[in-house]
């Protein structure tokens, strides 16, 4: 179903007087006769919240040597010019910048802007905090950033500022789930610029630049979708009147030597007629503006006024009429034609701007940054939930949450989460999100204190932010400590947590004092592990209530060490390669059996519960990216993935180092492929999936003419997938993919690898009639299936040459040691019966997203804290999930509940379900 129920939300319609004529109610009477071409002049600016400069630098206009623009001046001059003539219009998209402008200007300035919005001269489009990416953003983050921006608009300006048009003109490809979300948000139309050049050529030839996009088979949602005639979202050639452009102005004084209005009008009409010949109605949209344009709005409007005047003087002759318009008015005019639009059911991935320019590298670029963003999703949801459950209604906590909200919303920008901003800008993004964590931690601790009736001073609780690196300051300083284990998921969670540990023994008890099983393991030290990593990892099984937490206590005192000396720590056993060709090694938990060949590679997998087994090989390989000297065409870079060969290279021939540590809770299998690639494969007690925790880096850099390297992990089975595979769309609906094929254009095999890459936000699978191999990811990655039964995921990349799309620096992250970035992440893999797979991967996706969040504090009197807590009084049906729970305003709360299964995915769980909100 994949439906969403908004149980309670403050209405977006405010008390603004309905006498105000908003932009969508003031469309020109421009229909005219059927043989008149109506030219909608759309004045706009596209303002990235960070890319070449930081968001602050872009707003204030500093660092002119990078880009001589300042967003504050754009709004200042646009407002001034709109006031001069009521027929002038402007369209604004980025709420994040608009909010900054409101808070750096006085009351009179704000009232002028308000009046222009309400009289229809300035139309708000898009409305999100940013123009979010559609490949690497998770749907929960998308909904949050859109809600954050739309709420600010409604509370500030009222109904006239609530956009009717979704405006995604710069993201590098477009997802079906994004279109579905826009339709569910009640947008009338969606406009964008970037999609595959072959599909665009086809649509131009067939006059189908506009379509109805069917966005969900479950909800039957669809949205009018318009794409642009030009190759960008900028003005026609010769008609850019911005301070950044050098096009000649419109000069209409006849006694001037450089009088040019007749020539300019003729050039304009030629362009209009060319565009009109490729469109299905007598309405065309001309975009007047581009990146950070209108710093001098007077120059724009003075020239456009003259252009419109002289074009319309000849309208009886030319049958062309030009006027200021907005995207909403254009949409209304097109729909008034009552034409039958073509339909589209697939998506717009991958995006290619040229035959060898596939924008599929950014699916993986900056993997640690992408991982940080995904971790932040979970923490923000937890902070919002506990603020609501504890009824933290004061302004201070609300402001703290908004710092976190705005930071994570900012990072959904299409040059942030994508990893396509300059390195210094990425540092700024990271700093802002880290500050968001600071504020989120404050809110979480305040909620804990309030839930305990202020008996517990939760300010002593600390998050460990480097847990993935086996580093935790709290556990390093205390021999005994308490851990609050949070569950942001709306279903109870059974999990094994791993704690960086610095003592020789441990006793762990739950909140009742019951002794828990635990496993103390040596941290598997390789050359990639930091020196300050903990020597041990303490694994503990926990049962965590839904939307709640449980508390455990760890005692590592000398007394415990004496009592358990030599009993707890498990040792690693090295498995040496065998010369015997038939020699293999079985390693089993209670649920999964893995078979490794004599070289140390995974060979087969068996589920001991179901009896399902299949050959399975997992290995790391790498592509060499185009761009090595001498330069040969399009290079691999932050955006582009372009390998030099279709087949990836092995890291090295022969055997790999293999060690095993067997414990009562988890079996750890260490594989070392090279000095810069290793992984730990884990089998957890009671879990029917395999965890692959990979660690890659620093990717080697040659001293002379360095070679770009794109690292993949590949899982190979004998599943007869018949050229098809499936990837998620923003973590929600699943999309069927066919190798070397497109449903929307005739596929051309110019880039056999990168043309088959798709964004993977949460999972990818291959299947046949019997078996399905599913891999879940802990962050956004690029993925494909280049051979039947095979899944390939790109996990890290280091490019030494700029790909030529504006960043003007290579994707060469140098990491903490200045030698190169080390990235680590997780994949969860399972093999199952095809019919049962959805019931597994749907729930596992939320387990991966909402992994337990731990805070640490010194052991105090146990009666001073709430030892266990759940925000739910009854368990939700399996197919339902709480998407949002947060305080909206004082005494008002927002609850979104979603059905997480698609139609026909599961015979039981795809059906509807009921929940009693009063229980």
TrEMBL record:
<dbReference type="InterPro" id="IPR015341">
    <property type="entry name" value="Glyco_hydro_38_cen"/>
</dbReference>
<dbReference type="InterPro" id="IPR028995">
    <property type="entry name" value="Glyco_hydro_57/38_cen_sf"/>
</dbReference>
<keyword id="KW-1015">Disulfide bond</keyword>
<feature type="signal peptide">
    <location>
        <begin position="1"/>
        <end position="19"/>
    </location>
</feature>
<keyword id="KW-0378">Hydrolase</keyword>
<dbReference type="InterPro" id="IPR013780">
    <property type="entry name" value="Glyco_hydro_b"/>
</dbReference>
<keyword id="KW-0862">Zinc</keyword>
<dbReference type="Pfam" id="PF01074">
    <property type="entry name" value="Glyco_hydro_38N"/>
</dbReference>
<keyword id="KW-0325">Glycoprotein</keyword>
<keyword id="KW-0732">Signal</keyword>
<dbReference type="InterPro" id="IPR011330">
    <property type="entry name" value="Glyco_hydro/deAcase_b/a-brl"/>
</dbReference>
<dbReference type="Pfam" id="PF07748">
    <property type="entry name" value="Glyco_hydro_38C"/>
</dbReference>
<dbReference type="InterPro" id="IPR011013">
    <property type="entry name" value="Gal_mutarotase_sf_dom"/>
</dbReference>
<dbReference type="GO" id="GO:0046872">
    <property type="term" value="F:metal ion binding"/>
</dbReference>
<dbReference type="GO" id="GO:0030246">
    <property type="term" value="F:carbohydrate binding"/>
</dbReference>
<dbReference type="GO" id="GO:0005764">
    <property type="term" value="C:lysosome"/>
</dbReference>
<dbReference type="InterPro" id="IPR011682">
    <property type="entry name" value="Glyco_hydro_38_C"/>
</dbReference>
<dbReference type="InterPro" id="IPR027291">
    <property type="entry name" value="Glyco_hydro_38_N_sf"/>
</dbReference>
<keyword id="KW-0326">Glycosidase</keyword>
<dbReference type="InterPro" id="IPR000602">
    <property type="entry name" value="Glyco_hydro_38_N"/>
</dbReference>
<protein>
    <recommendedName>
        <fullName>Alpha-mannosidase</fullName>
        <ecNumber>3.2.1.-</ecNumber>
    </recommendedName>
</protein>
<dbReference type="Pfam" id="PF09261">
    <property type="entry name" value="Alpha-mann_mid"/>
</dbReference>
<dbReference type="GO" id="GO:0006013">
    <property type="term" value="P:mannose metabolic process"/>
</dbReference>
<comment type="similarity">
    <text>Belongs to the glycosyl hydrolase 38 family.</text>
</comment>
<feature type="domain" description="C2H2-type">
    <location>
        <begin position="22"/>
        <end position="46"/>
    </location>
</feature>
<dbReference type="InterPro" id="IPR013087">
    <property type="entry name" value="Znf_C2H2_type"/>
</dbReference>
<keyword id="KW-0479">Metal-binding</keyword>
<dbReference type="InterPro" id="IPR037094">
    <property type="entry name" value="Glyco_hydro_38_cen_sf"/>
</dbReference>
<dbReference type="InterPro" id="IPR050843">
    <property type="entry name" value="Glycosyl_Hydrlase_38"/>
</dbReference>
<dbReference type="GO" id="GO:0004559">
    <property type="term" value="F:alpha-mannosidase activity"/>
</dbReference>
